[in-house]
Amino acid sequence: MSRSVGGYHHGNLQAALEDAALDLLETTSAPKISLREVARRAGVSHNAPYHHFGDRAALLSALGVRGMAALLAAQEEAVASAAGPVERVRALGLAYIRYAAAHPQTFALVFDPDYCAAGSPSAEMAPLIARNEDLLGGEVAALVQEPGWEGRDVMALSAALWSTVHGMAQLIMLGHLPLEAAEPALDALVR
Amino acid sequence: MSRSVGGYHHGNLQAALEDAALDLLETTSAPKISLREVARRAGVSHNAPYHHFGDRAALLSALGVRGMAALLAAQEEAVASAAGPVERVRALGLAYIRYAAAHPQTFALVFDPDYCAAGSPSAEMAPLIARNEDLLGGEVAALVQEPGWEGRDVMALSAALWSTVHGMAQLIMLGHLPLEAAEPALDALVR
DNA sequence: CTCCTAAGTAGACACTGTCAAGAATGTGGA
DNA sequence: TCCACATTCTTGACAGTGTCTACTTAGGAG
To answer: For chain B, what is the mean pLDDT?
Structure first.
């Protein structure tokens, strides 16, 4: 399927470019990734990417969508294999944190306003954000039925939990907190 | 004091460069700030900054130190004018969040590992980080003497509170949460 | 006054993102 | 079958960037 390299028509350059850039993201922060280096890795000229992405930001933005999808999938999988409302929320948060620790540059890209603006998300990003909010909101709604959590405002509690988990992910990713501190700290707050 | 502009000797170019860059930070994210633009604003040649900063990252790093100092000062001031352990911790967190909302680019710079590495902080940054940890640790230590908080692990609780506040600051700064959601969300968790 | 050093300038280089124009390739219609 | 055409990719150019080297100037110590 993949066309012989060297010819004019690559076959699936769009995906190849995203793959190359995703590779670079393992070791390099998004702002330092160069479009020309990505093209070089994909074995095409420095201008080939412009036929698949409007500009550099568009490529990074596409990577952000991929990252957000992976983050969402990690949370959904974690929730599915947990029993009980409290345990499910815990699993969701830990999955979020572990994804950030495992793919720090990708996680940072997803929340970088220069490429993935929260105010005006791309057409592919918006539904992912919505699904994530639904996922968290649903679990919190189940949580507030539990003894000890009854009557809490779902919106406020969701915002607080998201903040805690997001902040912890950020601080661990930056090296301000060790990954092992995540579970005890979470439990210190939520009990 | 300030030397006549146009001559070879500026007088205090180091500070002038930081001021110009800080101005740019009000509207532009750190990775997009160009050293040559900063020099232009300071009215000097594109190479003058190299006599005061080793490279571009060093200038941004110095701005990060300024930002961290301001963030710390905001917290200290808020704590000083609050009564009671719970209220003091609350004030500290809100000051942190409000600083991030008021100076988003500067706040982001302080936590940008490309310029302000958490693992190996600069000589000026390290004591500020230590002072901030002492500030939070001290307030939490006082908090766990209060009824309803007795016996909690200070380290774990500090980490959790920092995470919550930092995450909320981040999400508000990015536009994922409105600033007005901060207080209710904080209170939903801490009661 | 002289000379040294710190603080500025000018010029060059490699690299970047992006625009314009041209060449190769595959495709639908006669 | 053959030929216009749109797509994909290439080459070349331009302005802007960070940083290196070399030169010029100002101010202060002796």
So the answer is: 93
Rounded distance between C-alpha atoms, residue B185 and residue A12, angstroms: 46
**B99, two tokens:** 């600083």
Residues A93 and A172 in one domain: yes
> What are A140-179's pLDDT values in tens digits?
999 999 998 998 999 999 999 999 999 999 999 999 999 9
What's the CATH code of the domain at A123? Answer: 1.10.357.10
A114 with B29: Cβ contact below 8 A: yes
Q: Is B166 helix (H, G, I), strand (E, B) or coil?
A: helix
At what angle are helices B154-174 and B125-143 packed, to 10 degrees?
120
Q: Is residue B14 one of the residues assigned to a domain?
A: no
Identify the residue whose Cα has the smallest distance to the C1' of C10.
B45
Q: Which residues touch strand C (CB under 7 A)?
A: A 3, 7-9, 33-37, 46-47, 50, 55-57; B 8-11, 13, 44-48, 51-52
